[in-house]
Amino acid sequence: MLTARGTLDDRVEGLDAGADDYLVKPFEVPELLARLRALTRRHLDRATSLPLGRRRLDEATRSALADGEPAIALSGREFDLAWHLASRPSQTFTREDLLDAVFAGADNVGVVDTYVHYLRRKLGRDAVRTVHGLGYRWGEA
Length: 141
Hints:
CATH architecture of the largest domain: Orthogonal Bundle
Strand content: 15-25%
Strand order of the largest sheet: 3-4-5-6
C-alpha cells in the first residue's frame, strides 16, 4: 500500500485490511524498489509454477509445460535445479551454491555440471546460462 496516511492506526488498519506492505509518502525510490524485490521473493516461495521461456515449470507435475505441446518430464533433481535457478532468474549461482541448495549430501560439484547438461538436453541449450568464472544462471528456454 502506498499512501500519505502514516499514523500508527493507519498503518495497522492498512496491514489488517490485507496489504502485504505499507509505504508512506514521501518515500525514496530505492526503498520502494527494495520492498518490491522483497515482496517478489516472498511470493515466489509460494508459487506453484514459474515461467520458463514459452513454457512454465509446474510444481504439481514436476515438469515443463507449454500450451499445445507434450509435457517435458523432469527427474526430481532436474526439477529442483530448474526451480531453484528459475525462481531467481537474474542471480548467478556458484556450483557450490547449487550443490548446497539442490544436491544436499553430495560432495562433488561435478554433479551440478551433469544436471545442468541434463536440463539443457531436455529444455534447450539456452535453458541454463554459464557465467564464466562464476557459475550458472537461468537462461531463456
